[in-house]
Amino acid sequence: DAGVTQSPTHLIKTRGQHVTLRCSPISGHKSVSWYQQVLGQGPQFIFQYYEKEERGRGNFPDRFSARQFPNYSSELNVNALLLGDSALYLCASSFTPSGPQEQYFGPGTRLTVT
Amino acid sequence: AQKVTQAQTEISVVEKEDVTLDCVYETRDTTYYLFWYKQPPSGELVFLIRRNSFDEQNEISGRYSWNFQKSTSSFNFTITASQVVDSAVYFCALSPVSSGSARQLTFGSGTQLTVLP
Lengths: 114, 117
Known about the structure:
The structure holds two protein chains of two kinds.
Chain A: E1 5-7, E2 10-13, E3 19-24, E4 31-37, E5 44-50, E6 53-57, E7 64-68, E8 74-78, E9 87-94, E10 104-105, E11 109-113
Parallel strand pairs in A: 2-11
Antiparallel strand pairs in A: 1-3, 3-8, 4-5, 4-9, 5-6, 7-8, 9-10, 9-11
Chain B: E1 3-5, E2 10-14, E3 19-21, E4 24-26, E5 32-39, E6 46-52, E7 60-61, E8 64-69, E9 74-79, E10 88-96, E11 106-107, E12 111-116
Parallel strand pairs in B: 2-12
Antiparallel strand pairs in B: 1-4, 3-9, 5-6, 5-10, 7-8, 8-9, 10-11, 10-12
C-alpha cells in the first residue's frame, strides 16, 4: 500500500505570494494533520482535519488555512508568504483523530520563500 | 501547555556502541502518549515507539529500548549496538489521550545522532 504522499516535493516562492500544498493520506485513513518544521527545529502542529472538519489548530496566523476533501486528501494554503514561512511542511495521516494509533508522515514539501 | 525538551543537540558514537537519547517533558494532562520518531536525511519522520503514560513498564524491541519514569517526566531512548544506518535526527514527542483532543504532537527540538564506522 502507498504511504502518505505530498506534492510538490520542493517549491520556491517570492514574499507576498500564495502557496498550496497537497497531501494524500494512506488508504482508509480519515484524519490528516499538517506540521511545519523549520530547519534545525522539531515539527510544529498547524492543523488537524477529520471527516472534512477541523479538529485542531496550532498557534499559526490566519494566513494559514487548510481543508479536507471527500476523498480525505487535504490542502494547506498559505497567503502573503513571509521569509519565515520557509520550512519543510509535513503531512501525517491516521485512522482516527485521537487514540493510540500512530500517525504516518509523508516525505514533506520543502518550501523556500525568497 | 505541553513542552518537550531534548537537551542533547548532537551525539556521535562509534558503531556497535550503545547510545541513550534523553527526553524530558511537561504536561498538565494526567494521561498522555509519548513517542520517539526518527528523521533520516530524506526528511520523512519514521515512527519508532509509543508509550502510554499509565503504563510505566519499560520494554525492549529489538535494538531499541526505553526508560519511562513518570516521577521525573523523562522518556529516554536507547539504541543497543548502534549501526551507521541509525544516523539520523531523533525526536521525542508528546500527545494528549483525551478522545476530544486533536492528535496534536508536541515535538522536542531533536537530537542529531551520528554513528561512525
